[in-house]
Amino acid sequence: MADVNQSLQEAMSLDGAVGAALVDWQSGMTLGTAGGGPNLNLDIAAAGNTDVVRSKLKVMQNLGLNDKIEDILITLTSQYHLIRILERDQSLFLYLALHKEQANLAMARYKLTQIERHLSV
Question: Fewer beta carbons below 10 Å: N end or C end of the chain?
């Protein structure tokens, strides 16, 4: 099992990684961050992506969908933003921002799944 910091550093080892965070979507608070910088404030991104998760859950409820979110992909012109809800703790998500031209999206999604499996919170 890997702790939060080890897991986020592993996410940052992906090609094109800009920033990573573990977020409690109920409070909007980060439990850990790696990377980021002047163009990516991870605390602001965490709070904003919390709203994304809440909105999607509300839509699912309104549609009567009895299902779980695995991940949410937001594609910008220059970046991918991945939100991966943790299987064993649905109140947490891994957030990963990637440079679009440098990233392999399929590999990033696969790697986040692996990181989640080994993450000890």
Answer: N
